[in-house]
Amino acid sequence: MEVHSYFLNTRKKHPLHLTLLDPGKMDSENLSKIAKEADQAGTDGIMVGGSTDLSFENVEKSVQAIKNVTDLPVILFPSDSGVLSGKADAIFFMTLLNSSSLQYIVGEQIASATHIKKLGLETLSMAYLLLEPGMRAGLVGKARLLPRDNPNLVISHALAGQYLGMNYIYLEAGSGAESPVPSEMVKQVRESIDNTLIVGGGIQTPESARLLVESGADIIVTGTFVETSNSLVEDLKPIIDAIHSA
Ligand code: 1GP
Question: At 226, which CATH number?
Fold first, then answer.
């Protein structure tokens, strides 16, 4: 499956929802159960990744288990170069543009490039921007967190990502953030860039998901919500419906 084309074609019909599954937090059996239910609820794809406790083994096993229960595209969302699986359909080949460390801007990318070519993974180029509070990803990625009240600085980073040729710009509040990226920030970034805008971190309700897509997000990511829900299809469907119908 060509994931980039799939995203662009699906976006022509409606904004997308992606389900983030973290093999550092759950075993492959539980992750595949969530993937199956998220598929039933209407999600458009599965991202696999996290900030800590990932290993080649648990990523590979999790991707395989997810592929066994769904035909949705599975996209790696890696924390570093050591946790890649050729069983996935694609990888977000991402640079943390507001990291203070070369390792996360270009080091991990150089370390993984040859391996990605050998695995034959489709690469989806992405500028990853961490806004306050950033959570675990902010600490691990040594981010100089972008302030929530400084749209001009966020726009500069997003535009730099676009001019560097990234197809995707990801505004990230951090997994488990108390509140998502402000909708006004999303609106201003949307008005400044032309490429696909992903928003994630702290999105827990249909209302906040709808507001973010109405403000210009093309893709909404939820992780914590799907990990913590007891009846996932029932709970997730209203969020996905809000995104698809916005
Ligand atoms: C993290 O944006 C994602 O990279 C998802 O965040 O876990 O808060 O949904 P949540």
Answer: 3.20.20.390
Rounded mean pLDDT of 26-50? 96
**Dihedral angle of Cα 245, 39, 208, 169, to the nearest 10 degrees:** -90
pTM given for the model = 0.98
Q: Could you tell me where the DSSP H helices lie in the chain?
A: 3-13, 28-41, 56-69, 102, 108-119, 135-140, 151-163, 183-192, 206-214, 224-228, 232-245
Range of the domain at 178: 3-8+16-245
Ligand 1 centroid from CA 220, angstroms: 9
pLDDT in tens, 119-147: 999 999 999 999 999 999 999 999 999 99
Give the model's pLDDT for residue 94.
97
Summarised one tens digit per residue, pLDDT across range 64-76 is: 999 999 999 999 9
Atom from ligand 1 closest to the CA of residue 77: 4
Distance (angstroms) between ligand 1 centre and the Cα of 135 equals 10
Q: Where are the alpha helices (DSSP H) in 124-182?
A: 135-140, 151-163
Q: How far is the CA of 203 from the centre of ligand 1 (A)?
A: 7
Q: Backbone phi, then psi, for 83, in 5-degree steps?
A: -125, 55
Q: Domain total for the chain?
A: 1
Q: Which atom of ligand 1 is nearest to the CA of 172?
A: 2
